Amino acid sequence: MPTIQEIVTSAVAATGLGLSIYNTVQARRDKHPKLRVHVSFGFLTFGPELSDQKIFFEVGNPWNRTITLARMYVPLLDKRSVALFRLDGEHQMPVALTPGMSTRFWLNSDQFKAEIIKAGIGQEEKFRVMACDALQNEYRSNAVSFKPMK
Which CATH architecture has domain 36-140? Predict the structure, then answer.
C-alpha cells in the first residue's frame, strides 16, 4: 500500500510533467506567425445610402510581431488560383500589420461571383480565401459561398 507521501510525490511529478509539456507547446506555438482572415458579405454606407453588395476580406494580426500581408487569392482544384488584384480597402498591399492591427479589403460581390464561377467554383460551393505574408506563410479564411441565405 503506497504511503501518502508517495501519492503526493507522484501527483506533484505528474502535474509538473503536464505543465512542462503545456509550456513547451505554447512556446513553440508563439514562434509561428499568425494572421486571422475573415470573409463576409455586406454593404458600404455613404450617408443615408448603401453601396452595391460587397465581399469583405478582413485580415488581423493577433501575433506579437509585425507581419507584412503580401497577397490574397482563392485556391482552386488542380493547383490553380484566382488572384485578388486591385482590392479596394483601408490600405494597399503589401501592408505591414503591427501587433493587434487589422485591415479590410472589399470587392463588388457580383463581379467576384462571376470570376469565381468562371474559374470553376459553383454558386453554392464553399470556398476559402488565402492570405500570404512576405515570408510566403499562408493563412486560410473561413469557408463561404454565394448560396442565397434563406
Answer: Sandwich (2.60)
Please tell me the distance from the alpha carbon of residue 123 to that of residue 125, in angstroms, as a whole number. Answer: 6
What's the predicted TM-score (pTM) here? 0.76
Q: What is the pLDDT of residues 77-109, one digit of tens each?
A: 888 999 998 899 999 999 999 999 999 999 999
> What residues does each domain of the chain span?
1-31, 36-140
